[in-house]
Hints:
heterodimer, A: mainly alpha, 6 helices, B: alpha/beta, 2 domains, 4-stranded parallel beta sheet, 8 strands, 49% helix
Amino acid sequence: MALVNPDFAEELKAFGVDTALECFNCGTCAAICPLIFEHFPRKMIRYVQVGATEKILQQAQELWRCLHCGLCTQTCPRQANPAELILGLRRYVVARWRRA
Amino acid sequence: MYNPRDIINLISAHVRKSRNPFGIPSSQINTWWREAPGFTRRPGDALLVTGLMYQSIPYIEATTRYLERLEGSRWADYLRFGRLSRYIPSFVVGRGFACLTSKASMQQFNRILVSICRLLTQSSVDFFYHPEMDFYSGILLYDLGDQEGFVEHAKFVARTLKLHGVKKIITVDPHTTYALKELYPKYTGVSFEVQPYFALLRPHQVSRGNGRPPVAIHDPCFYGRYLKVSEGPRQLLSGLGLSYTEVRNCGEFTSCCGGPAESVSPALNREILDRRVAELKASGAPVVTFCPICLANLLKAGLPVEDLASLLDRSW
Lengths: 100, 316
C-alpha cells in the first residue's frame, strides 16, 4: 500500500516539470530508451501522474541512470518531454535531500 | 552504481571551491593557450569559450579510472566523505591530480583547441581568447539535478562575462553551447549570441580531401537533438571534398555514447558505449566526432576516432 499525493504533478511545476499529465503512457519512451531498464522512464512518469511520491523517493537512484540523451523527448507522440521530466524529478529529489 | 547524492555533493563542493568539477585551480586545467601564441588577449568581436571541456578530459579519465575500479565494492561508500575535500587547498588536490593525469593525453586534447583557433583564423573570424574569462559552464551540476548549484555558478559566470562587455561567444563543445545558448538566458536572465565554432568556418578551396576514405560521423546528442546543428559539420566536410558515411542512428536520432553516466556509474557507461561502438564499427570507416566527452569515450573503446577540428585542420 502506498499513499498518493494527487497534487504531485502540480508541485513538480516548481522544478520545471509541467508536461507530466500530457503523457498517455504509450511506452514509446521506454522502447527507445538506451537503458532498456524496467520500463524507464515510463514507470517514473506514471508515478508522477498518480502522485506516488514515496515510490519515486524509494527508487530515486534510478533517476540518475538516465543519460539525458533526449531520445524519449524526440519520439514522444504527446510532447510530454520525458527527458525534462526525469531531470525535474532529479531536482525534486535533490531538494528533498538537501532539506532532510 | 554510486550513490548520486555523494557524487552531487562532491562535484557541487568542487564547483563552489574552484569553479570547476575537480576542485583544482582552473589555471592548472586550462593551459592550451600557452601553446597557441597569437590567439590570445587581442581585441576581437567574439570571445572563444572552451568551457574547459576539452582540457578536462585527462582529469575525467583519471577520475573515472578509479571510479571504475571501486564501483560496487565496499570502498564506494567512502565517497560520501569526498565532500570533505573542500577543506583541502586546491593546489594540493591539483598536485595529486598532476600525478594521475597523462601529459600525452593533455597535449592530445589541447592540440584540438589549437586546431580550432587555426581554423577560425583561416576563416577570418574576428575572435579573441582570454583564459581568465574562460569558465566551466556548470553543465554537470544541471545534468545531475543540482539546480541551486548550477544557477549560482551560472549567475557568477554570466555576471563576469557581462561585466567584461562580452556579447558574442564562440563555443567548441555541445555541452557548453547548450548551457550558454539555452540555459543561461533561462536561469540567469543574461543572453549572449552563441555559435559553435564550426558554424563560422568558411573553407576557401575544395577537393583537398579527394581520394581519402570516407569517415563515419558520430553525432553528439546535444548537437544532434537538443541544438539540431548536425548539418553544419556535414556541410564543412563536403565543402572540403571529404566524404562521409552515415551510421545507423545519426543526426537527430543519434545514439548516446554513454558519457553522461560516467560519473555515477562507469559500468553503465561501458554498457551503453559498447552498443554505440557496435553501430559505428558496422560502417567500417574511421569515426569523426565533435564532442570531447564522446571523443574520449570512443577512444576508450579502442575505436579509430578523431575530432572534427583535427580532421578539418589537416585538410584545410
